[in-house]
Write a structure and sequence with these properties.
The structure is a single chain. By secondary structure, this protein is mostly beta strands. It has 2 domains: 92 residues, no CATH class; 100 residues, Immunoglobulin-like. It has no helices and 19 strands. The protein has a 5-stranded antiparallel β-sheet, with no helix packed on it. A 4-stranded antiparallel β-sheet has the order 2-3-4-5, with no helix packed on it. Strands 10, 11, 12 and 15 form a 4-stranded antiparallel β-sheet that branches. β11 and β12 form a beta hairpin.
């Protein structure tokens, strides 16, 4: 049975307990967790079930700079692989995503002047904007999701808006009165760049 996918980093499952990531020399990734498993090939769609054709060649790698990381692995070709688990929608299920890339992770910045939130989104120095694509061939728009903490009389994080970055990767949002907060965050699903599935990124700023 075919599994679903996020906009770039691949959606694996919701509420996956104790996930484990393995990668073979062909670049096939297997993600197992309590109650399920998924096989992600280097190209094409992913499948529930299945197993690696060869041994796991990945080694544990530092998770510094990779938000939401529950496992980060490095393969002999220098690529990094990460399982990231987070609530894409505040109050929603914890989603488990898979990313694979080389070099620096997705870069997301956020700043506040009290009336506006501004920031930028890039990967390997190039702006991230426009559309990405899913493993099923869909082309969704890239959005940076902006949340405020304890705003509008609500507890915890509240989703304000999803904003599409401009051609240079920048974005700006005027803060409404009910969005007034001492803390804001921006989160983005890493873009799909073919064989590269850039990792999800997050930035938090105090007002």
């Amino acid at each position: 049975m075919l599994a679903g996918a996020a906009q770039g980093s691949v959606w694996i499952a919701n509420g996956a307990a104790r996930p484990v990531l393995r990668v073979d020399a062909k670049g096939d990734a297997q993600v197992t967790w309590s109650g399920g498993s998924v096989l992600v090939p280097p190209h094409g769609q992913l499948y529930h079930g299945g197993s690696l054709a060869g041994p796991d060649v990945s080694k544990a790698a530092p998770a510094a700079g990779i938000p939401f990381a529950v496992s980060v692995r490095r393969t002999p070709d220098g690529r990094l692989w990460a399982l990231q688990a987070w609530q894409v929608v505040p109050g929603g299920p914890v989603e488990l995503h898979l990313a694979r890339w080389a070099g620096q992770p997705t870069q997301l910045t956020l700043a506040s002047d009290g009336t506006h939130l501004t920031g930028s989104l890039s990967f390997h120095g190039a702006p991230v904007t426009g559309t990405t694509f899913t493993l099923e061939g869909k082309h969704p728009r890239i959005y940076v999701y902006l949340d405020c903490f304890a705003c509008g009389g609500k507890a915890g994080w509240t989703r304000m808006i999803g904003v599409a970055p401009k051609a240079d990767g920048s974005f700006s949002v005027l803060l409404r009165p009910d969005w007034t907060s001492s803390r804001y965050r921006a989160t983005v699903l890493g873009p799909n760049l073919g064989t590269t599935l850039a990792p999800d990124a997050q930035a938090i700023v105090n007002s």
